[in-house]
Amino acid sequence: MEKLEQYQNYVQQAITEYAELGSSRDEIEQQLIFDTVRNHYQLMYVGWKNRRRQHGCVLHIDIKNNKIWIQHDGTEIGIANELIKLGVPKEDIVLAFHEPLVRQYTGFAVG
């Protein structure tokens, strides 16, 4: 249970810190969505820019079987790198946006 709580904190910290890098001048709202019961975490962008609707997921991370599953990473920094800096070992990070057959070549967990 301690590992789960630690990973929940790391994921929330990494997503929050990334969201804080964004510009506050934008008309786009950043929504942090943290479901700590089911272990789903997202950063969404929602709003209007130049009369066009903006709605999209920037980050989607799940915690399953004591591993952090990065379902979607739309960042330039690579959220896995930020999680490693916080102390998460590569063997506990799954780059789920890669198909299962490719994951063995990423240097991260396969599942």
UniProtKB/TrEMBL annotation:
SUPFAM superfamilies: XisI-like. This is Fatty-acid oxidation protein subunit alpha. Pfam families: XisI (PF08869). InterPro entries: XisI (IPR014968), XisI-like_sf (IPR035943). Signal peptide: none annotated. It comes from the Bacteria.
